[in-house]
Design a protein that fits this description.
Two copies of one chain form a homodimer. Chain A has a single domain, classed as Beta Barrel (OB fold (Dihydrolipoamide Acetyltransferase, E2P)). In chain A, 6% of the residues lie in helices and 62% in strands. Chain A contains two helices and 14 strands. The radius of gyration of chain A is 19 Å and the shape is globular. The interface between A and B is large, with 39 and 39 residues.
């Protein structure tokens, strides 16, 4: 499998004072709700697209920032996407979360342009919302068309992560959902299961109601750029040292 | 000092087959010449700006890729800026280089748009050229105006790096040059020595002839975004763990 790349950069404002909680093992978990507007330019023109992302910060960093952050604070986040599975009432569930590695509050000042939403939450204009991913496709790309005839491609990406834990090197795989629109979607349609690709894009949220009536959320990557990686006789990357 | 962030992402084409050499200590060093066109949108409209960057890859990765790359190959590079000093004929010299941490050849194919320059070198259109930096200003920002009246701000940035070497944690500081234009330059003019800032921008090269008649080159970051970080009672980041 191609080496994994899994980086997320966000700049937005906190919609609320973050909640601190502790795992049963005593680890601090800080949940941040970050909001921003992306300026997106494509074939259809320039639009401002709002986003709301929940970001988790763990451990020492969470404790450091737990009491210092208020609603409206502009923040820079460097992080990654984390795939997580669990069981609830005998059913297997999975989710993709944004995990912050580092957090840096920005000085807002007069230059900070914001908009207020219907719930009174402050959203930063000209936010930053970027993901860079490298992995292998978990299935052939599915190309569909919206009722208006706009092509949209969906693909699954398996991103390898190698961390040094207490028991030596540990391997984890993050299963992520990627979509592409228009020209990029049509190009992507030829990509096949197993192919290694580079994805650059924005994080977007989607929600739907499950068959049991529950609201479900998914974090996807909306690709602005997709590149096929070469395999070059097994050389394509190799795992990160 | 605020924690350092030092990341560079490039996508471009190789202008030549890379040169491999070895340090006196036996470490492989691969020098890559990468070229691309950035699509830059600002107050003056949209322009395609060419760039040529030299990228160094060291050690095991250099040996892995040494024989596999040819001129014209599209590449993705994840790396950082490295500040280096040395002495030559009793004079102290310094340079900023682009150091690749990882290299991934892309499959070009029919979608790869390129232009050929006057020397017959192939340059990728719609390249990627992004730097994300966090550090402290080494001096007050200097604001000047071009003969046409365009504001340009120059600043020095000290970026901390903490690596785990054989003798434990090692600290290094990279001294980088950053510039900003127009509105961003005028805003930046109020930044003072010592302030922690976040810089997002493109890598650009500048060259001039020294007093001794030699051609000198410098790699600068042209900021597209600048943000003041808060210090928040000494909490601003702290070094990376």
């Amino acid at each position: 499998m191609a080496r994994g790349l899994n980086r997320v950069y966000l700049i937005g404002t906190l919609t609320a004072r973050p909640d601190m909680r502790y795992t049963p093992g005593g680890m601090a978990v800080l949940e941040l709700n970050l909001a921003g507007n992306d300026l997106v330019q494509d074939e259809t023109g320039t639009r401002e697209i709002p986003w709301y992302h929940r970001v988790k910060l763990l451990g020492r960093q969470a404790e450091m920032w737990g009491d210092a952050l208020e609603a409206g604070q502009p923040l820079f986040v460097e992080g990654r996407l984390e795939y997580r599975t669990w069981e609830t009432e005998g059913q297997k569930r999975s989710a993709v979360e944004i995990r912050a590695d580092f957090l840096d509050p920005l000085q807002g000042g007069a230059r900070l342009e914001t908009v207020e939403d219907a719930r009174g939450q402050v959203r930063m204009r000209n936010a930053l919302n970027q993901a860079l991913l490298m992995g292998n496709l978990t299935r052939d790309v599915e190309l569909r068309y919206t009722p208006q005839g706009t092509p949209v491609a969906r693909m699954g990406l398996a991103v390898n992560e190698r961390t040094r834990g207490q028991g030596g090197a540990e391997e984890r795989t993050h299963f992520l959902e990627v979509q592409a629109w228009r020209d990029l979607a049509e190009w992507a349609a030829e990509l096949r299961k197993g192919e290694p690709v580079l994805v650059i894009g924005r994080l977007v949220n989607d929600s739907w109601t499950s068959s049991t009536g529950e609201r479900r959320y998914i974090t996807r990557v909306e690709a602005t750029r997709l590149e096929r990686l070469t395999r070059g006789s097994g050389q394509a990357g190799g795992p990160r040292p």
